Amino acid sequence: MRYDFYAYMDRMKFIKRWQLMRSTREENIMEHSQSVAMLAHALAVIRNEVFGGAVDISTTVLYALYHETSEVMTGDLPTPVKYYNKGIHGAYKELETRACEKMADMLPQKMKEVIKPYILADEQSEEYKLVKAADRLSAYIKCLEELRSGNNEFSKAKKSIEKDLHARNMPEVEYFFEQFIPSFALTLDELEEP
């Protein structure tokens, strides 16, 4: 029997993000997923090590790794469309769930039992909340990159995403802003300075 899961997942590199906006550098959902996984890992470590939390770091990273799985079937629906109203958001959420279930069905049964819980994450868990924050952080960092390149197309998105991130009242997000975000404004030469 043929299992198509990983061939579909490999197609993430062809699905572009930020489709409604002019970008100086295109971003695909494969590189975005890697960014979110790295940022979610950082937030989970900060939660546990700096603020005494007890989230499962592996679960957090795996949720992040698979958080865009549905988009290999649905494409990346732009945020303004996805959240235009509750009806559209609800319908799209159902479509995402069905796409994730279909993707999980493309795995051998024994693998499916292990991987499916990460594809269809527990959205009420603290680990998933960290992934959602990391997803927004990744978008915020993309805005910073575009603005640094002189592309003001991302200025409103930056403000909106920054407001959303601070409104989450997550100490690990605030810590990340204080400790790491300033470096994203630096050039390579400036990063190499002591």
Rg, please? 17 Å
Q: Which structural class fits the helix and strand makeup?
A: mainly alpha
The low-pLDDT segments are: none
Compute the number of strand runs: 0
Q: How many alpha or pi helices? A: 11
Biggest sheet features: none
Quaternary form: single chain
Topology as H/E string?
Answer: HHHHHHHHHHH
Which strand-content bin applies to the residues? Answer: under 5%
Query: In one word, what is the shape?
Result: globular
Q: Distance between termini? A: 56 Å
Overall pLDDT score: 92
Kindly state the percentage of residues in helix.
55-70%
Please, could you describe this protein's structure?
- The structure is a single chain.
- This protein has 194 residues and is mainly alpha-helical.
- The chain is 64% helix and 0% strand.
- The protein contains 11 helices and no strands.
- Helix 2 packs across helix 8 and helix 2 packs across helix 10.
- The chain is globular.
- The mean pLDDT is 92.
